[in-house]
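G., before I forget:
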Amino acid sequence: MHTPAGPRQGAPTRLLRRGLFGSALGATLLLSAVPLLWALTSSLRPDDEIFRYTTRLSWKTLLPIGGTFRNFREILFEDRFARFFGNSLFVAGTTIVLGLLVNSLAAFGFARFTFRGQKLLFGLVLVTFMVPFEVIVLPLYLVVRSMGWLDTYRALIIPAVPDAFSIFLIRQFMAKLPKDMFDAGRVDGATWWDLYWRIALPNVKPALITASLLLFLRQWDAFFWPLVATSSLELTVIQVALTKYMTEFITYWGRLLAGSMLATIPIVVLFFMLQKYYVQSVASTGIKG
Amino acid sequence: MTRRRAWSVVPYLFIAPAMVGFGLFKLYPIMEGLRLSFYEVRPIARTQDFIGLANFAELVRDPVILKATVNTLLFNLAVTPVQVVLALGLAVLVNRKGRVLQAFRSFFFMPAVISLVVASIIWKLMYAPDSGLINGLLIAVGLPAQTFLTSQSQAMASLMGMVVWKGVGYWMVILLAGLKEIPESIQEAAIVDGAGPGRRFFSVTLPLLSPTLVFVVVADTVINFLLFVPVYVMTQGGPSEATTLLMFEVYRNAFVYTRFGYAAAISTALLLVIAVAVSIQMRFLRVEFEY
């Protein structure tokens, strides 16, 4: 809608318009990219060099000229960052496996059956979607504590498994599958489990990918819950580990930024690999949520 | 037939694992949180006493909570409109086909891709008074260095700046999806009728985008009311409560002072504030876009 080569528009107006358009894009690009570029570059520098280049700006400030991986080596092998990274990977991976199973089962139940209490039960799922997680952190903490799960992997994984958004998404895909597919299976004597496992699941792969991505991101970025639910170093996840660096090693900028980059690289890689699903998942929260 | 009306245990078996999980980890905690607001909880003795509205009576007199409430409201009044307007502007700007713009869109989205913790850390270092990038930049163009997060008067604005930066790309993507739903034929018809770009934006794009826009405003408001991570990472509420927000007070009272009942009451009060804010927005926005 910005290409209005209308009859009344002269060349100078169009030129001005293009200039404004270009500078708005350029300014936004700078604002979005510079902090990230600076963080990446600085993570590849010893601390004294970080300070040198940020206090006296030069063309090298944002370019990793003569970079070193020393910060990364130090946090991974001298500190226990490999462990924290692994913890987050393990928690996110397990959540995906369990979450896909539990939520796709529920999605199948809601999509392919009509049963008594269906509306009420689906309404309850909707309630869990509407109430923000932050509000239940404290009571959830008390529940998990009374189960004796505090400071365990279970505490990090299990509460994140049932997920309303995954159910909505997968249900929507399953409801759209043609009835004939399932009827044919019934005729062949397939059980409900067969229909779910052999027919429904393989045909909703895009929904499963989007749901996995969401579950992964939620667990990888999780901070508030792991902060309160775990206390031992063995169970520290990556985002919490970073903030511990912040208070204890505030002067070690290089290490802190190297850790931040380690926390960022997996999700940026995922973003570019699964961009289509990623954007779709964000957009569908807006339109269908 | 996959859908049957006769009573069968099968569908319940399919939904059971998820429903048990929701009951235990979502629905029960929701009720429990409301209930605890009316209790005094002693975490060591593990006893609970019903104290009626005493928690709420205390929190309206608590100067820290009062400060946090004012901060939270100010934060929302400033951040949410700025985020939505910028996101809308960007969405309209990049809503065209082309590989270059596709790349721009990806870059604009980058701040939304990184975690809130990482964004807070990067900005905390950029804001550092002595060796941060922003002061380096200010000095380079001949301006005086600022104190940002360590200053009583600048800390809140600095926090807001980071949150705006982090959020705009996310809302842009949602608004872009909304813009794509608007049929091109309507825009073309408006061009034929001689409507300029400004007129088309206000008379065609905005009204047709309003369902998405309302969603973005409401969702952004809710998220901004519940903000915790930036405060925890960047300021811990300081200097002297200048940047404390209600969610941070919930955290502090629950997990630092272990006053579970009082923290639950703050949380309940916050939910009420959000409900009021959202219902005001709904009424306001509906009127504005009524045709």
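Strands of chain B lie at 39-42, 47-50. Residues 63-94 of chain B form the longest helix (32 residues).

More on Monday.
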